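Form 7-S
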Amino acid sequence: MNRIENIMTREVVTVTMDTPIGVIKSAFDRHKFHHVVVVEEGRAVGVISDRDLLRTISPFVGKLAERKIDFLTMQKKAHQIMTRAIVAASPDDAVSDAACQMFRHGISCLPVLDEDEGCVGIVTLNDVLRWLLDHHYEGGASACKAA
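Output:
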């Protein structure tokens, strides 16, 4: 019950190395998530967080004050802003191990990879926190929302 596969999100939005930043931003806006996994030939090769995107995109994009450089930034590719050193989990890893990994590396998600480094899910700090509350807090995570 305390394995990653029991709490991970299985429907992961992935992009390729050459996906433009503008397309990635649209996906973030449309789906309301905080991470995408970058894949190449079926293997996970990077992660882009909403914070990575915010650091890259000018606040003037789409505004009257938008400059040519702001527009050109949206043409950059995923491989130019992604985190390449992936810290990942496997479906059989313990939730507590995932929590330690995220804490140790100061990250907010772990792609969940199979033995071929294909992305089969993603686990976030929110997933771990929800699991922790459900297992160690009277009434679980739903009781927190009601309070």
